[in-house]
Amino acid sequence: MAGLTTVVSDPISGVGFTIGRYEVYGTASGASFSRGDVVQFAMDSNGNFSAFTAPSGTYGTAEDMYGVCLEDIASGARGRVCIYGTVEAYTYASASTPSVAAGGAGVPDANKNIEFLWTTTFNAKVVASICAAVATMSSTRTLRLVHFNGFSGWGGRSGGAG
Amino acid sequence: MSHVSADLQGPGSSLSLAETDVILTTTEAINRGQVVVCIPNSDGTFTTCRKTTVTSSIDAGVSASGTATNQFVGVAMHDAASGALLRIRLRGLVEVLAYSTNGTPQILTDNALVCSISTGTAGVLDANVTGTAYANAKIVGVATNAATISSATSTTTLRTVHFNGIEGWGRFGGT
């Protein structure tokens, strides 16, 4: 199991920046997973994270920690998972076929996707921000580059429609 | 190109937040203290920025459909012409242009600030985070001291805040 520590800022060098990246090893529990699948880490009674499953809640309404598989991982096997950084993840929109602008926010769904146009869900955990605009986000799950933060999220939770 | 990640400064007898600065090319003229949006490239990197706008509330973390959006924002550390390199602060203590539209126009210590969506306030933070218009807005500033400032959108003032334009300090749940 990889230990999670405070991320350290790198020195400034040149023009531009990227979102730093954290990868951990985890064990696939109960199913096999593909590269780009969104997963939810299971916490043991000591507060450790070692195994992961498909996301269980609707849009992450419980306080769970998420990652994106960086490789195909068979059930019971260990594999690399990104918990923070720029990563290709499966994206999806169930409600319609929306146009998503760069910076559009996504939440984890139970089908291992980053879901966009998740309407007015309260308490959804904002874990992803898409890097490039998508003219038509369909219900066909597609790998796309996102800025991902499966632990603290990008600003935390949605307040719903207000 | 630098990487950006979370950090707390220490150890010591007090806590201060580590500062994260980056240099981007601005696509328009910017003044010190103005709030800018880091424009993502298709490969996920950031090399350019622009002022936050009020025509699209997506900069504040709010969408018309009621869902949250996310932008990475920073604060300009100096004046810069369009096309020039600009040092921006993504995290840490910084002076930022701010105002408040509440009834008693002031910023209180610990007030949360978000990117303004009020007309005429591009590139500034608003300390009046109330109502439904700001529901889901990403809180990017926390005021460090109280101050009486104008509520007029034309007279924004430099205020010192703890800033986090990457992860934010949570989101406003609306009322």
Describe the structure.
The complex is a heterodimer of chains A (162) and B (175). In chain A, a hairpin with a 5-residue loop joins strand 7 (105-108) and strand 8. Chain A is 0% helix and 40% strand. Chain A is mainly β and 162 residues long. Mean pLDDT of chain A is 84; it is low at 1-12. Chain A has strands at residues 17-19, 22-28, 38-43, 49-53, 65-69, 78-92, 105-108, 114-115, 122-125, 128-130, 142-149, 157-159. In chain B, strand 5 (35-40) and strand 6 (46-51) form a beta hairpin. The termini of chain B are far apart. Chain B has strands at 2-4, 8-9, 16-17, 20-26, 35-40, 46-51, 73-76, 85-99, 106-107, 112-115, 125-126, 141-143, 147-148, 157-164. Chain B is globular. Classes of the chains: A mainly beta (162), B mainly beta (175). Chains A and B meet through strand 1, strand 11 and strand 12 of A and strand 1, strand 4 and strand 5 of B. Strand 1 of chain A pairs parallel with strand 1 (2-4) of chain B.
Features of the shown structure:
heterodimer; A: 162 residues; mainly beta; 9-stranded mixed β-sheet; two-stranded antiparallel ribbon; 12 strands; disordered N terminus; B: 175 residues; globular
Structure at a glance:
The complex is a heterodimer of chains A (162) and B (175). Chain A is mostly beta strands and 162 residues long. Chain A has no helices and 12 strands.
Write the layout of secondary structure elements.
The complex is a heterodimer of chains A (162) and B (175).
Chain A: E1 17-19, E2 22-28, E3 38-43, E4 49-53, E5 65-69, E6 78-92, E7 105-108, E8 114-115, E9 122-125, E10 128-130, E11 142-149, E12 157-159
Parallel strand pairs in A: 2-4, 6-8
Antiparallel strand pairs in A: 2-6, 3-4, 3-5, 5-6, 6-11, 7-8, 7-10, 9-12, 10-11
Chain B: E1 2-4, E2 8-9, E3 16-17, E4 20-26, E5 35-40, E6 46-51, E7 73-76, E8 85-99, E9 106-107, E10 112-115, E11 125-126, E12 141-143, E13 147-148, E14 157-164
Parallel strand pairs in B: 4-6, 8-11
Antiparallel strand pairs in B: 2-3, 4-8, 5-6, 5-7, 7-8, 8-14, 9-13, 10-11, 10-12, 12-14
